[in-house]
Each structure stands twice: as C-alpha cells, then as structure tokens.
Amino acid sequence: MRRPPSVAPRLSPNPVALLAAGLGLLALLLSWLELKPSRIAPGEAFGVWGWQSLWPWVLVALWLLIALTRGRLQGILLGAALLVWGLLIGQGSNFLLNNQPENARVSATGGLWLALLALYVGYFAAYHEGRGWAVLSAPLALVALLLLGVFDRLGPVLEFAAWREQFGTELWRHLSLAGSAVLLAVAVGVPLGVLAARGPRYGWVLGVTGFLQTIPSLALFGLLLPLLAAISQGLRLEVALGMIVLGVFAFRLLWAVSGWLAVPLALPLGLLALAIAGAWLNNLLGPDPLRVVLDAPLQESGVRGIGAAPAVLALTLYALLPVVLNAYTGLRGVPEAARDAGRGMGMSPEQLFWRVELPLALPLILEGIRGAASLTIGITTVAALIGAGGLGFFILRGVEGGAPDMVLLGAIPIILLALLVDSALRFASMALRRRVGI
Amino acid sequence: MIHFENVIKRYGDFEALKGVSLEVAEGQLVTLLGPSGCGKTTLLRMVNRLIEPSEGTVFVGEQDVRKLDEVELRRGIGYVIQSIGLFPHMSVLENVMVVPRLLGWSKEKREARAREMLGLVGLEPQTFAGRFPRELSGGQAQRVGLARALAADPPVLLMDEPFGAVDPPTRERLQDEFLKLQSELRKTVLFVTHDLEEAVKISDRICLMNVGQVEQYDTPEVLLRSPKTPFVQDFLGPSRTLLRLSRIPLNGLVEPLGTHRPAVSIKSSAMARDAFSLLLANGIRNLGVTDEGGQVVGLVRLESLLAAASEEDAPAAPVRSESP
Amino acid sequence: MKSVFAFLIALGLGVALAQKGPITVGSKIDTEGAVLCQMVKILLEANGFRVNDKCSTGTTDVVRKALTSGEIDLYPEYTGTALGVFFKDDKDAAAVTRDAAKGFAKAKELDAKNNIVWLNAAPANNTWAIAVPRALAQQNNLRTMADFARWVNGGAQVRLAASQEFVDRDDALKAFEKVYNFKMKPEQLVILPGGNTTQTQQAAARGTNGVNAAMAYGTDGGIAALGLVALTDPQGAVAVYQPAITVRKAVFDRFPELATLINPVFAALNEATLSQLNAEVAVNGKNPAEVARAFLRARNFIR
Fold first, then answer.
1. For residue range B116-152, what is the model confidence (pLDDT) as tens digits?
2. For chain B, which has fewer Cβ within 10 Å, the N-terminal or C-terminal residue?
3. Closest to A402 (Cβ–Cβ): which among C199, C227, C284?
4. DSSP C188
5. Which residues span the domain enclosing A271?
6. Cβ contact (<8 Å) for A337 and B81?
7. Are residues A254 and A348 in the same domain?
C-alpha cells in the first residue's frame, strides 16, 4: 500500500485531479435541475447559467485551481467546491420555484450528479495529495450545507418530509434485515467454507451456494411463502426447537455414517433454524418487537410466511456465496509449511485450525464478509416485496407511482449505507492484513 | 534413542521405503542423505508420526511411537523444516513460544525461555522478539526456526533440510553455529539433507539412502574411505578423498619443526583439507602450523597428507571403476 | 432464561387481552392499496382493535397468497382481478366481468370456497381506460371510446402505450376494439414490459417515442396531473374493477363487526372521491396514512 515517491515536478498536475476538473467543468454545461408541475409530471430541465448567480463562475475558478494545484491545498479547494455546489443547488431551486404552484417540484438532473461525481473523483486525488486528512473537508462541507438547508426544496427531501416517520422505521428495518442476514451468513458460511476447504469431496458446497445466488428473489419468495406459512401455523415453537436440537444430534450420528444420509436431513431443519433465527435476530435488532411464545404456533413468535422470516432467509442464502468462497480461498491459501510446522510441533487439529489456519485465513474471510455486507445492503431492497419493509419500500412505491424522487429517497441511503459499510470493513480488513502480514 | 525396525511405506503400488532398519544413538547427530525421492524425508516424518509406516515399527526412547498419543509425542520432539514454517501472523517471540504454550507453561516461564532461546541461536532478544517473520532475512528466520524447535528442550530434534533455502555463506555460518550448539546440547538429531558436504561436515553418522533403502550407514570417515556399493561410490563422487581430508584434524599430522622455516602456515585447529588446499594454492610441499597465539610450532608435509588420505582405503572394499 | 420467556409470554397475553384482535392488514404495493389499507387500519384501531400493519405487503401474487395462507387477515382486492386472474378458468366468471353487481356477487360466491369473505365493494370502477393528452382530446373532440374509435378509423397517427396484459386479455383492449369497432395495428402499440399505468401515462404525457395514448385506470390519481383525460366507456366494454375488502373467513366469523365498520366507509368511496384521495398521494406526495385519516375525519367515520 506504500505510495511510490512523487518524482514529478511540482507543477505537473495530478491526472486524477485533472479528470475531476474536466468532469466538473463539463457538468456546468449540462442541466442541473428539473422543474415539474407535480412529483409525477414531466418537467423542464434548466442549466446553472440562467439563475442570475455568481456561484457558477466561482465553481469554474475552483475547478481550474484544483486542476493546477497539488498537495494539501487540494482538499480545501474541493471542500469549497462542494460548498459552492450545494449553495448553487439551493439558489437554483429557490429561483425555479419562485411563483410556481404549490405542487411544483424541482429534482436533480444529470449535471448536478455529474458535478457530484467529479467531486468524488477529486477526493481520490486529494486523498493521495493530502495524506488522507484532506478528505475531512467533505463531511464538514456537507454538514454545513445541511445546516444551511440548501437541499430542503429538492424532491427527495420533500418526499422525506412526507414520509419522515416511516423513513426512520424503514431505515432501521433495512439495517436489521441486512445485518441479521450477514450475521447468519457468516455463522453458516464460514463453517461451510471450512468444510469445502477440506477437500474436493466437499466441492458440492461451493456448487450449492453458487446455485442459490442464481434463484430470482421473486421465485424464492413465491416458494417460501406457502411453505413457511404452513410451517408457521402448523408447528409449535417448542416442537420446532426440539426438532432442531434432535436434528443436530441425528446429523452428527448420520454424518459419521454417510454424508449422503445426513445432508437431506440437515437441509430442511437448517432452513427452519435459519428462518427462526432470522426472524428473531431481525426483531432483536430492528424496530419490530421480539416475541417468543411457547406452546403456540411459530406464527405467534414472528416466524411467518411473509415478513422478516422469508426475507432474512432469502438474503442469508444470497449472502452465503462471498462468505463461503472467501473462507474457502483463505483456508486453501494457508501455506503448507505453516500447517506442517504446526502439526509437527504437536498441535491438535483443533489447535491448528484456531491458532494457525483461521488467523491466516481471517483477512480473506473479512473480505468475504465485506462483499456480503455491501451486496446484502443492496439486495435487501427485495425484502419490501414480501412485506418485510426496508428502504426497498420507497423504491418499489416510487417506481409504481412514477415518482423518481421517492425512488431516490430509498436509493440514496442504500448507496450511502453500502459505501459506509464497505469502507469500514475495508479499513478493518486492511488493518488486520497489516497485522497478519500477508 | 531412535530406532527403526524394518520400516516399509507403500503408496498404492509404489514402495517409498523398502524395509529400513536404523539405530540412532542418544546424543548423536545422524544425517539421512540421498538424492531426492530416496525416502529420507518420509523416514524422518515417521519419527513424529506425520507419516505412519505401512509395516515395521519406529521407537523413540524405548517406546513404540504408535502406542503414544501423536500430539504428546510431537510436543516432545523438536521439528525444523526447510521452508521454516514460521507462523506469519505471530511475532518472533510468539513463534518461539508455541510449543511451551501447547505444553501449558506459565506466561512468564515461556517468555523467559523464548528469550533465552533467541539468545542461544544468536538473535538479540530485544531487537528480534517483536519482529514478524516477514521482517527477517532467510538466515534469521532459520535461526528462529531452530530456537522454536529447541524451546521446550526436547531430547530429540528432527531437521528436514533446515539450511537448504539460504545462500551458501549463510549456510556455512549456520552449520558452524549449529555444530557449536550441538556440542553443548548433545541432542539426538535426525537431519535430512541432499548436500554431501553438509552431511560430512556435521554428522556423527551418515545414513546414505537410495530408492527406499539404506545403502550404507557409517561414520563419515568410514563412508568416505570405504564405499560399500557402486551407488555409494557414485554418489560420493571423485572428490570424496578431499572430503575425507575435511574430516581429519590437522593435529595428528603435525611433525616437529626441525630446521624448516616454511613460508606459509596454517592454524593447528584447521582440517587436513584446508592444509592440502593451501599447499596446492602455493605450489609448495611443506606448511607451517601455528598454535592459538600464532606461533609456528610445527610442520605438516604433503606426504603425510597423502598418506592420511589413502590410509586403510583400498583393502576395505573392492573399488570398481567410476564409469561402467 | 425461563423467567424471560415467562415475562414475554405474559407480555404477549396481556396486550392480547386488553384489545380485540390482532388483525393483520395488508395491501398491494400501489397507491390505492396503500390508501385503502391505511383507511381500514385507522378505522379498526379507532374501534378498539389491535392492528398489525402489513400494508404494501407485495405484488398481487404475494398478497393473495399471504391472505389464503393466513399470513394476513384482510386486504383490498378488485372484483375484476378476482374474476380475471384467480378464477380465470371459471366460465361463469368470464361471463360477468363487465357487470358490476353480478361480477361482485360471482367473485364473492366463488371465493367463499377458499374461505375468503368479500365485504361490500366501493361504488367505484378502477378499470382499464384509455387516456390521451388534453390538448389532443380537444383538437379531435375525443370524450368517449366511440370518439377514439372514430379517430383511429379515420387514419389518425395514434400510438398507445400499454402493458402486455392489457393487450392480451379478452376483457381489455380486445373488448374495446370489439364493442367500439376499431382495430389497433401492431405498430400503433408500444408495449412496456411489466408496465403499470403510471409509466404508460407518463409516456403519453411526455410523448416518449411518439406515444399519444395510454392505458390508464379509472381511479388513477395522476391522470389529471399529467395533463391527460381518460376517455369514458359508455357501453361498458371492459371488465369492472370494484375495490372491496377481502377477509379470511375465520377472522370474519370471530369479528363480524368488520362488515358493519368497513362497509359504510367503502360505500362513501365513489370514483371521484377515490381518484381525489389517490391524487393526494400520487400527485401531491402526501403520506397515505395522513390522507386516509383526513378522509375518515371529514366524513365523521372517526373522531
């Protein structure tokens, strides 16, 4: 990760910054805002030059400076550009909405997004130029813009105002659904990856998890709904738990005899356990209350054919592949010499696994969890299809209602969440890699 | 201390070991020497049961290893391999502490022991304890490997080409240091190598193997002097006499100085081979021998070197021509 | 551990005893579904029920399965959907899709076998219609489907955006063509895959790809807001789609007062009212719960 020493003369521009400035200037030629008579009606697009504002000129100047300067200054300039970008949006929406009927809306169009992309690209350059701290100007500028309220008259913000209460709940639900699914996928996937790494005999594990990912979510929900509904109404909680516990023992006995006998037993019980664990974990983490009612059908404990149980179950199955694959790859990548040395020094198989193999595979396993997490945050959108809620609710309702602003109300937080989780886990895995030294 | 009794190892139809019997006495350093594929590593790995024999028995001490718990057995045997196998996620100190930790020693005890071991193999504990394997040179890593194998003070050491992956000068230095260490510790060592010079230099006895069988098991002197089979003779090659000289200390060949005043001299602690090399290099027949203080105290003649090299040679075994 | 379970059980029972229910309400993921679902939810809560909000449960397929498998207790469904989708193999059903009263009776009768009870339908018809831009309608004097037929037959440049279902079904476009005697050529149709009426209407409003007519629903809130007018169907050519609450029989038998609570509200939901409520959500971007509550208050169904 060490950066090559900069040998270029001081005035030669950073190519990434140059690209960012090019994009930023190009964006100023495009339309930024769209004025619509209502949230669903077609609108008219406007560029920044008709708003009787000085900010576009300031932005041009800032981009030129960003293209030409190097070093720490770039982060500050980018922060300023971000600030001007927001002020321009605020001024534009006020200008366009002046003397318009109550239902009129302004929404973002291409130029505005392209300008944001240019800023994002610019921060990559600033990160390299300013040793990381430069990036801090972005959150500062964003907080300032939010405090100034420049986005308050934009479509998605108005949608947020109308759905404020539910937005919080759905955001929380989205996180609890995705979080439960990732936790379960790790709990199930790492052992599966360990199994797969044991030898070609267990190659089917990779095949099955790969296959799971190809099932369309709607088809999976269509399958799970009647199945889980029947189980949740017919099976009492203590019976289900008893079956699972007995299943574990039966599985151990059968596994010793033959895997082909044990797996068909484990699959349905495993799925049942996953459905129960998924519903409970989601309710534990999420806004819906956790209820555990013994001596009553599973339904009473929140395990149903719609809602969290099928949603978390499906998301868990989708998240398995990256976890399993990375655990497998990580364990296969443990140097044979380390394994031989460990065995030769008298580590039992368990000690070898916990002290040598697992720590060495951990960075890759964490990479897998990172992949699973960002993937899951994205596809949790489909949970709204089966009554489990989440931010997908806004996307589905927005698409159905032809209201792009509402789609964005769901999509923007999902993108931000995915980026946030991704970089947090990337940071963690990098720190671990450095510690482990591979 | 280590005893193989008619050990056979089969992999399907292939016989990797065809009935090997071998006795390694306590405190001896025995090398298993031979070309690759001769079964020497397989034999070594049977001692700590990383490989189980198809037939035959391996004893460590008086115990049949199959009757011991394999994990317990391995913890009592030091193990060093060519690729070192240091754990990349553990510091040097943690690596050295692995076996003491497995044995359940207290933290203070194992840490003190690990530092002591690092000092023993010539690594300054202050400097190296906190480093990670990736920050070590090949030679340093190999020393850590040795320290790790010695940490729990096992009576038996298994070393599988431990110096195979370092450059020649480092290898020689490591060999010298290891010999010095061994002269103090007197471990029972089984040492795999394919390097004849290394084997001659360090061994008490050499077990020369070929395609799963022991060709000859003798001290280096006997082996070099009297190869028992054509394979052995072939393997030792034309320079075996020179190698023999490398095992003969110069002390025994020194004559009184008399009136000679040799121009070139050599330390009395050197080997006959070094003296021979010096004579050849200078085109002379006599060499002075100095004591520790550098004082010339004696003389060694070319004739006595030649006599030492040929001593007891021919009668021991019929030597056939080198190329068939 | 045991005491935690006991506590949770007690908590569950305690809440259950204090109120009636719980009743789980659901709906399709669309504007009208959300409004009607919230309306029922608020109404029931105001009358002492505990309600599980599963509004916007899923697509028609999912929400119907959720009802029949007992995952939800009630949701608003359309008579036309029941006859045309759930009972599409029933000959009698096909015969009455165009008659509001007979169609409702038939749907109610057929669904009884599935242990589903239909409460009274609203006097609104959220059926298929064709909508055109207002300016175009004025230029060509288009008000009814008969006008549309005359216009098409006169060789007009027409392009109709529709879903595959609208084109395929016997009681949709084909019924319009048969009754009003016109024929759309394939090149005059723009089929939007998985298209809903918002998309077809937006296409017509924007003139995307020359589209100047759109499949629409009678009670869509967005028609006027998009500058379109829906052409009327004076001869009743296409299936009738009246919204009604469908309830699981087990639940209805336990709480027969559902009918007395919900029927009067649905009786008040005529086409104009429903369109206006939908528009509040679809066009003005209001929250369905707010819109439903405001309506129930204004009509004195709740205080």
1. 999 888 888 898 988 888 888 888 888 899 899 888 8
2. C
3. C199
4. G
5. 164-436
6. yes
7. yes
